[in-house]
Amino acid sequence: MPGDFRRLVAEMRDAYFLIQDASIMVLSGSELTKLGYEEKDFAGIPFTQIFPPELNKELLEKYDSLLAGNMTLDRLHTDLALEDGARIPVEVSIWPTWYQGKPAVAGIVLDMSSRLATEQALRESEEKLRVMLESISEGIAVIDLESNIQDMNPAMLSLYGYDHREEVLGMSAFEFIPPEYREAAVANQRKTLRDGYSGNLEIMLVNRNGKRYEAEISAAPLRDKAGEPVGFIAITRNITERKRQEAENLRLQATLRFYSSQVVKASKELVQAIRGIDSQSSHNIVVGRGLSGLESSGEEVELLTPREIQVLRLAARGLSNKDIGSELGITVRTVKGHLLNIYTKMKVKSRTESVARALKEGWITLDDMGPVN
């Protein structure tokens, strides 16, 4: 096997060929069957036969120029015409050589279908990523280990205060951090490299126009194929409005607590005042059937019996009929009877109305209703 042919075989990645006198002398390789060819079918045929007809003239010219030494062509991108008429993109690596004492051209044919499909998928993936990054409201920036800005999305560009990314590329990220906060930013970078994630850092930032704003930054290290850190990717959120709202909520809560305490204080003072007035009142409930009754608010009320007074006071404390019966040692039915008599004598329709009127007229006191906390 000639030396050049050994070189051809050694460098073979896909199908390899040897052309002499514009005819195929050798066409071989494990990939030939994938391309729809067999080696025995091509010995001695014009090499242009495996390419689309419209390329024949151009390929023959390149072949002649290559043999004549008038041109250097080591790679050619074209299509290969398959047996079934289909075409696939290929990359042809060629070089002039000698075969059996005569000039020839050797080369390798690489099937580019998978590579092109991968490149297309990568372009589509990159486009999806670009659209996603541009639609995110948070600022995203790529920064190298020297803190120089390498890339950013439109939201981050806006936070920087610029209109064109070319104006920002290469600038130090520390130009957008006030001097008094830079030490904290450096410490956060170290933490990110050490732990693999920065956590959420609340910090003050400043834009191109010198306007400060409160921000929250979270970052992660970027690494190369060997796992070594090469920079950072940082997400920045403007939290000025959130912090303002939090401060406003705290102020409103403090105001609410103050007024609530004032209401409670005023309520207690009012209760104490009512008790003071009640303790000085000379109103008493007169019991017994021999009296004609009391006049209250211009309306005469029939006197209550001692038992009815007991029931009324327990009702004022909020006890149920069952609890009143237990307290007085009487049945629930008897309690109901006493309450009906009370309603009739006081000209009311319910327990609530009877208690309210008794309080209003001074027939019972707040002490009868239990302690006020």
What does this structure look like?
This protein is 40% helix and 23% strand. It is an alpha+beta fold. The protein has a five-stranded antiparallel β-sheet with strand order 2-1-5-4-3. The protein has a five-stranded antiparallel β-sheet with strand order 7-6-10-9-8, with helices on both faces. Residues 1-13 and 281-298 have low confidence and may be disordered.
Task: Summarize the helix and strand pattern as letters.
Answer: HEEHEEEHEEHHEEEHEEHHHH
- Which whole number gives the mean pLDDT? 78
Rg, alpha carbons: 49 Å
Give the DSSP E fraction (strand runs of 2 or more residues). 15-25%
Given the structure, what is the number of helices? 10
Strand order of the largest sheet: 2-1-5-4-3
Tell me the distance between the termini. Answer: 111 Å
Number of strands: 12
> By helix and strand content, what is the structural category?
alpha+beta
Q: What is the 3D shape? A: elongated
Q: How is the main sheet built?
A: 5 strands, antiparallel
- Fraction in helix: 40-55%
Low-confidence stretches: 1-13, 281-298
Quick take:
The protein is an alpha+beta fold and 373 residues long. Helix content is 40%, strand content 23%. Strands 2-1-5-4-3 form a five-stranded antiparallel β-sheet. Strands 7-6-10-9-8 form a five-stranded antiparallel β-sheet, sandwiched between helices. A two-stranded antiparallel sheet has the order 11-12.
